[in-house]
Every structure is written in structure tokens, then in C-alpha cells.
Write a structure and sequence with these properties.
With 123 residues, this protein is mainly beta. 4% of the residues lie in helices and 52% in strands.
Amino acid sequence: QVQLVESGGGLVQAGGSLRLSCAASGRTFSINAMGWFRQAPGKEREFVAAISWGGRSTTYAESVKGRFTIFRDNAKNTGYLQMNSLKPEDTAVYYCAAARSVARMTSGICDSWGQGTQVTVSS
């Protein structure tokens, strides 16, 4: 079992930046991909970004390409999501997830989820 704990959410003005962190513990050796999803009020959860645990592969939703960057620090078992040029439509609860592969993650097939952290972007 892998436990994931997110941090770094908050309130920011449009155009601003935030960095989310996701600390993993437990059976971290079973993680092959870590990523982020988000869910806005009244909408379904959607994929945001993923990274292979080795860091060779990353993938992003079209809506965040060029603005968000996903990276990880394996020594700390921690993944990050750097969010720049934030827009009001980025407002959502952001969830960290772990999966057996980036492909499974982008399909929404994840083995572990964090509790979520709120990101609010004001206009």
C-alpha cells in the first residue's frame, strides 16, 4: 500500500504560481508513475499530468501544457506540480495519484490517491 499526502494548495490571483507537493510513503518501490488529477465543482475528475518514476516520461493535459511542469525527487519520494500562469478555470481540488504506468494513469487507472488539496485562482 502506498500513502500519498499533498500540500501546497491555496488562493492565488490569475497569472500567479503555485507548487504542489506529493509525499509518498509505504510501498513506494511499487510506484512506476506519479501524477495529478483535478476536480472542479460540478465536473468530473480530469487528468492533469503524469511522470514516470524514473523521470524519463512525462505527459500533460492539453489545457495545462506550457504552464504546468511535473517533476519528482526520488530521494525524497516526493512528486511536484509547478503551476504557472494560473487561470480561474484551473480552480479545483487537486489530487495526487500513483499508478503502475503512465499509460494506466492517463486512463484513470490508479492504485493510490491522496486526499486532495484546494487550488483557487481569483480573477
